[in-house]
Amino acid sequence: MDFKDYYNALGVERTASEDEIRKAYRKLARKYHPDVSKEADAETRMRDVNEAWDVLGNKEKRAAYDALAERVRSGRGAGPDFGGAGGGFQPPPGWDEGFEFHRGAGHAGPADHADFSDFFSSVFGAAERRNATRRQYRAKGEDHHAAIEVPLEFALQGGEREITLRAMEVNDQGEPEFVTRTLRVNIPRAVRPGQYIRIAGQGLPGHGGEPAGDLYLEVRIAPHPLYRVEGQDLSMDLPVTPSEAALGAEVEVPLPGGGTGAVRVPPNARAGLKLRLKGRGLGGDLYLVLAIALPPADGDAARAAYEQLAKATAGFDPRRQLAAAGASA
């Protein structure tokens, strides 16, 4: 059995603050949660992340772990080095003298550690079982995090939506297993990507009569064929003909959520120009990005029109800036 580096599991320095550790855990929990992760080893990585958070997210456990790590590094622990080579790591006798691990909000009790590593069990298992016999755990249940994806049209209007979640729980035999549950969630109007929806009491059950934890749902917006989500705003490419861009025109555009609206293209508009429709985003605006669509010269009339245009604009050189830049290079 090797000594486990919990700081490395969360990708933080040993001097990391409580807030840095909490943020690292939440980031990895979103990445490896089995409900959303595409990683082949997501369940294993999620267990490692949960185990590291259980220790480093608890002040008493972290202090005890740091003290043990220092003993091992200094050669005063079982095994010749920090990695546990040459016979493997075993916690030194009496290493936890003076430490009592109480469970803070958001952390598991002894019965919730069935899927943690042998290292965790050898270091913290006995201490937690001993402490559990002295007092009853009283703590709010652990909060859970999950991600949900909703269509843009649904995000604009909001409403009730049914979601299915999978979470690992310990059954009556003390074995970890995935449990599926279905919830109906009220999605607020104009919800934005990355926004969290809190559902009270839908986390893990509390201990000692304390309430259950909460469920936090991170909202993601499904890709849309027309609109791009940019925070509170939306953007869309708007194709216009050369004559519409040169002379100006009023064109009809589809609006998010349904229907159409008229927008005025100003004369001499260039590709990339942004036109704003106020209040047509996710609490923000809709930006229309102009793109020049060239009609094909696939007939006599079209070719004649292009030839006439070429004569009328003979003095216009679209590559003038390229030549100037090349000369100055």
CATH topology of the largest domain: Helix Hairpins
Q: Roughly what percent helix?
A: 25-40%
Distance between the termini: 63 Å
Question: CATH homologous superfamily name of the largest domain?
Answer: DnaJ domain
The string of secondary-structure elements, in order, is HHHHHEHEEEEEEHEEEEHH
Low-pLDDT parts are: 78-86, 102-106
CATH class of the largest domain: Mainly Alpha
Give the neighbour order of strands across the main sheet. Answer: 6-7-11-10
What is the domain tally?
3
The proportion of strand residues reads 15-25%
With helices defined by DSSP (H or I, 4 residues minimum), what is the helix count?
9
Class computed from helices, strands and strand pairing: alpha+beta
Mean pLDDT, nearest integer? 82
Number of strands: 11
Summed up, what is this model?
By secondary structure, the chain is α+β, with helices and mostly antiparallel strands.
